[in-house]
Each structure stands twice: as C-alpha cells, then as structure tokens.
Amino acid sequence: MGIVELLGLAASVSLLSGWRLYLTVFATGLAMYSGMVDLPENLKMLDVLASPWVIGIAGIGAVAEFFADKVPWLDSIWDGLNTLIRPIGGALLALAVVDAGDPVWQVIVFLLGGGAALASHATKATARAAVNTSPEPVSNIVLSTTEDVVTGGLLALAFANPVAAAIIALVLLALAIWGLWAGYRAFRRVFPKPDPGR
C-alpha cells in the first residue's frame, strides 16, 4: 500500500470511528481474526484488534451503542459520554494504520485522525439532537439504522479497496464539515446573536 492509500484508509477509519467507534473496531478485528483482511507488514500494529478480548469488548460496546442509539435522548446522552472516547479511538486507529516511524508524522497523524473523528462525531451528535426534537421515534430509528448500515458498508469498501478509501475519506470529511456548518446555521436561526445596541 502506498502512502496515499494508507492515509485514505486511516482517514476513513477515523471518520467512521466518530460515528460508530465500537462497530469500527469490532468489524475490523473480526475481519482480521477470520482472515478476511490480510494486512501488509507495515500495518501489523493493528494485529491487536484481532485479539478475542478486543473483539469481545468492542462487540459488547457495539451492541450497547446499537440499542442506545435507537432511543430518543438516550442517544444524545450516549454521544455525550463518547465525546472523548471516539476522537481518541479515531486518532489511535489512524496512528496504527499509518504506523509512521518519524515522531513528527506520528503527532500529525494522531492529530488529524482525532480531528476527523471529532468532526464526524460532532456532526452525528448535532444531527441526532435535532432529530430528537421530533415527537415521533421513527426518524431516530431510521437515522440510527442508516448510520449502522453505512458504517459497515464503508468499512468493507475501505478495506477491500484502499484507493476508494481515500475518496471515501474526502467525501465523509466534506459531509462532516457541511453538517457542522448547517448545524451552526440552524442554531443561529433559533438563537440569533443579541443586538449589542439594545
């Protein structure tokens, strides 16, 4: 894998971690454990994800997140609890994928991976908080299930085609930035800035 593919894969995994960290770790570990994903030598640092302990704990977290994410307001509490965990997890996954020997690159990849996971997490949490204002629970369940399916599908594509991983990362980053911008604009419409002349 070239540096572009590695960076694309790292960015994809980081961004997906902001949505579904436990599912990302579980699916990646399970794919490695079963031999579906054969990592090149420079990604052997990810072997820890194939540990049955890591797969088991990530699986429990994924199941808990699956159910918590379907209940209005409980999903926002869950997102709040994971505000620190998801960006750190995304940063560590990005660092493990790139496995840079140079300490400068390690810091850069760690910061970019954490920033990407934080951006997608913030977008997700903002969208879910907006959906929670709806009185019916169906939109919450549909949005959550869509996130589950999209995360699983994009993970499979990212590991099957590293070139597509770079494109996925760019699209997800653009969507996350757009989502944050749209959320900010919606917030400003509801809570306009006070007029300093009053």
Task: Write up this protein.
By secondary structure, the protein is an all-alpha fold. It has one domain. It has 7 helices and no strands. Helix 1 packs across helix 7, helix 4 runs antiparallel to helix 5 and helix 6 packs antiparallel against helix 7. The protein starts with a helix and ends in an 8-residue tail after the last helix. The model has no long low-confidence stretch (mean pLDDT 80).
Low-confidence stretches: none
> What is the N-to-C succession of helices and strands?
HHHHHHH
Mean of residue pLDDT values: 80
The number of distinct helices, counting runs of at least 4 residues, comes to: 7
- Strand-residue fraction? under 5%
The count of strands amounts to: 0
Please tell me what the overall shape is: globular
Roughly how much helix do the residues carry, as a percent range?
A: over 70%
Query: How many strands, which pairing sense, and closed or not: the largest β-sheet?
Result: none
Overall tally of domains = 1
Radius of gyration: 18 Å
Distance between the termini: 60 Å
The structural class is mainly alpha
Provide a concise account of the structure shown:
Helix content is 76%, strand content 0%.
